[in-house]
Input
Amino acid sequence: MPMAPDSYPPVDRCESIGRDKHTVVADMDGTLLCGRSSFPYFALVAFEGGGILRLFFLLIASPLAGFLYYFVSESAGIQVLIFATFAGMRISDIESVARAVLPKFYSEDLQPETWRVFSSCGRRCVLTANPRIMVEPFLKEYLGADLVLGTEVGSYKGIATGLVSGRGVLVGKHKADALRKTFGDGLVVDVGLGDRKTDHPFLKLCKEGYMVPANQKVKPVGVDKLPKPIIFHDGRLVQKPTPLKSLLLILWIPIGFILACLRIAAGSLLPMPLVYYAFWALGVRVTIKGTPPPPAMKSTGQTGVLFVCSHRTLLDPIFLSTALGRPIPAVTYSLSRLSEIISPIKTVRLNRDRIKDANMIKKLLEEGDLVICPEGTTCREPFLLRFSALFAELTDELVPVAMTNKMSMFHGTTARGWKGMDPFYFFMNPSPGYEVSFLNKLPVELTCGSGGKSSHEVANYIQRMLAAALSYECTGFTRKDKYRALAGNDGIVEEKKTTLKHKKLIMGC
Output
C-alpha cells in the first residue's frame, strides 16, 4: 500500500538490490542532484543561449525570485527565473544548450545515494519543477530516464514566451496530479525520492518514499560512473555560474576582452622568439617539455619535420611555434577569416580532397617544418578522437607533440558559436596556460616509407603514444560525430538536426 507519513526515512536506508522490475520516481534539484538551487543551470541557458545581457537580466531578477520563493510560494519564484531566462529566446537555442552544454554540468553534481537507487530500478521517471525542455536531454540520454515530467514553457512561432503552460510549475500537489494523469488509474510506483516537504504529495502515491536530507554534504558521483561518458560538450563557461560567479563574470568580461586584445596583439605583431616572454609578462603561462628537433637544413635537401599534435584549441600551432621560437606553418580543416587575419603563422586550408591535400602537404614539407592536428577537431575531455591517416603517408619525419591547456573561466573552443571568437575567449581567461610536450621522433622502422607500415597503423600508433603521454583514452569518434552531437551539422554546412547515438567507440589504448 502507498505510504502516507508526515516524514520519510533517508535515502541511504533504501535497498537497491533486486529492483530491476521496479518503478522509481525522483525529484531533480536536491534529490538527483546534490545542489538544491537551479539558478546555475538557468544562468547557463541565459548566457549560452542569450548572451551576457540575458545573464545580467537573470542576475538582477534573482533577488525577486528568491523573495517570492521563500515568502510567497516556490512556484512564484521559479516562474520569475523561467521568465527572465526564456522570454524571447528561440526554442531551438534552448534545445541546443540543453543538449550540448547542460549535461556536462548536471553530470558533475549527481547525488550518490539517489543515483544508487535510481539506477537500480528498471523503469525510471523524473518529476521536476524545472522546465522539461531544459533537463530532458540529460535525464534521458545520460541517466536512462524513461519519462520526464517537468514544467512546460509556452511558445509562439518557435519563440519562448517565458510563461508556463499546462499544469503550471510542477511543485507540491501539481507533481502528484501529473503523476496520476500520466500513470492513470493503474498507478503503481514502487519508490519515490524527494528532498523537501513540497515533495510529500507525490511521495504519498508511492509504495516506498525516501528523502535526501537537506544540507547534507556528499561527494558527487564521478562522471566515470555514468552509463556512458560525456566526451563532447559545448559552451563557453568552464565553471558552473553561481550568483556570485555570474556577477564576477559580468564584471570581468570588459576587462578580459581588453586583456585578450593585448595578448593577441603581442602574439601577432612581435617576432616569434619574443612571444614566449611577452606571453609570460601578460599572464599567459607556456610550459615546454621534451626536446624539439632542430630546424630542417634546406642546403642538404632535408625535408621538414611534420609535428603531429593532439588538438585542444585552434591555438595549438601558435603555442607550438611559441615553444620552438620560430613560426611553423599549419594545415587546418576550417578556420574563420578573422582567425586567419590575426594568426602570426601561415595557415593553409585543406580541401578534403585526398590527392590535392597530399600534394599540398608534400610541397609545404619541402619548404620546411609543418604542424598538423590529425583529429580534425578539438576535444575538451581527456579523450583523443580518431586520427586521419593521410599525414602518415607523406613523410617519415614525424614528431608527436602532446598539447594540453588550462582555462579557468572560458573555453577557447566552440561547435555552435562563431569560431572567430575562440582565441579571444581563450585569452580572456585571467591566467591561461599551455603545456607543449615534445615526444621522441617516430623510429623509421615504424613509418610507412622506410618501415613498410600502413598509414592506419602509423596513425593509430601515434594516437596511442599521445594518449599514454597525456593519460587520455583513445576513441573512434570523428569530427562529424562531434558536430552532429553538438550542433546538428557536420561542421562544414548546415544539415537537418540529428542526435548522435553513441556507439561505444571508446577503445583501450
